Amino acid sequence: MTGVRAQHRRATECAVEDAAVALVGMRGFDVVTGAEIATAAGITERTFFRYCASKVDAFLFVSRDVHDAVTAAVTAPVPFDALTEVIAEVLATFERDRHDDLDRLVRVRALLVADPVLLSAVLERDAAQTLELQSAWQGADRFAVPLALLALRAAFDEWADRRAGESLSAAFRRTCAALRRAATGG
User: What are phi and psi for residue 135, nearest 5 degrees?
Assistant: First the structure.
């Protein structure tokens, strides 16, 4: 994708996400329609559904980008330690190059906490994606993918609550280390 096209796509995704967060924050996920999000974002409903297969996708652009970056970096089945290191490096890159996207994730997370219908939709999507990732990323350790994703969610939640003094990648590495200690009893 060319630079101009990529910038336009990213601007549209940001507009869609901002509109979705604002509307759902006011009225709730189950009430807001894709057409309303499209109108608020300044695009047509057809364009909205080109970007979002379903309404829940309006909240997952940054998550998708993190997923795509990790998937591109993981070219063969990997064990837990290697997978978590790839995830930590992707998070560090996002912190350095796309800090505004982390702020967007925090806003989406706050909405997830406040709207159980949206949370349910996102968790359903996460469950399906976990199965997909297990086949793509699975290594010798069959627990690598579910544990890495659990550590990522836990680290993100803790980091989003505090947001001071520690980077997300450091919080993720610390969470993975705690998970290893808990698993080994050490």
Answer: -70, -30
In Å, how far from its chain's centre is CA 112?
12
CA dist 139 → 5, 80, 112 (Å): 36, 8, 31
pTM for this prediction:
0.82
Tens digits of pLDDT across the chain (186 residues) = 568 998 999 999 999 999 999 999 999 999 999 999 999 999 999 999 999 999 999 998 888 888 888 888 887 777 888 889 999 999 999 889 888 888 888 888 899 889 999 999 988 888 887 777 777 666 657 778 888 888 998 998 888 887 667 889 999 999 999 998 888 876
Q: Are 155 and 84 in contact (CB under 8 A)?
A: no
Place of tokens 């808990």: 182
Dihedral Cα 36, 40, 43, 47, nearest 10 deg: -40
Amino acid symbol at 186: G
CA distance 124 to 109: 15
Taking alpha carbons only, the member of 167, 60, 48 closest to residue 108 is 60
